[in-house]
């Protein structure tokens, strides 16, 4: 599985790995947060391997952070097309 990481440098600080598409999803161990994209499995974004430098946030804050991370990743992908 080829993955890339993204870091959040404001509190709560964390690093997370990500990949797109559903082909490698079965090989992920541990918690994984997924955005389905268009729903066809080709443009989904999966975040996994969370490494928190600060205390992990509440579920509400976590969901917001993951949604923001997906937005940044999606823009990064679009900028390279």
List the keywords:
single chain, about 80 residues, alpha+beta, four-stranded antiparallel beta sheet, 1 helix, 4 strands, globular
Summarize the structure.
By secondary structure, this protein is of the alpha+beta class.
**Spatial arrangement of strands, main beta sheet:** 1-2-4-3
Number of helices: 1
Major beta-sheet overview: 4 strands, antiparallel
Whole-number count of domains:
1
- The averaged pLDDT comes out at 91
The radius of gyration is: 12 Å
- The string of secondary-structure elements, in order, is EEEEH
Helix fraction, binned, reads 25-40%
Strand content: 25-35%
Tell me, what's the shape?
A: globular
Structural class computed from helices and strand pairing: alpha+beta
Which stretches are poorly predicted, pLDDT < 50 over at least 5 residues? Answer: none
Rounded to the nearest angstrom, the distance between the terminal CA atoms is: 21 Å
The overall strand count is 4
What does this structure look like?
The chain is α+β, with helices and mostly antiparallel strands and 81 residues long. The chain has one domain. Helices cover 26% and strands 30% of the residues. The protein has one helix at 59-79, and strands at 4-8, 14-20, 32-35, 45-52. Strands 1-2-4-3 form a four-stranded antiparallel beta sheet, with helices on one face. It is globular.
């Amino acid at each position: 599985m080829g993955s890339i990481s993204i870091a959040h440098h404001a509190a709560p600080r964390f690093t997370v790995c990500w990949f797109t598409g559903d082909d490698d999803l079965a090989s992920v161990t541990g918690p994984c947060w997924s955005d389905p994209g268009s729903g066809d499995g080709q443009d989904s974004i999966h975040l996994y391997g969370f490494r928190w430098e600060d205390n992990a946030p509440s579920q509400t804050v976590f969901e917001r952070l993951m949604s923001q991370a997906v937005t940044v990743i999606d823009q990064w992908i679009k900028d390279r097309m």
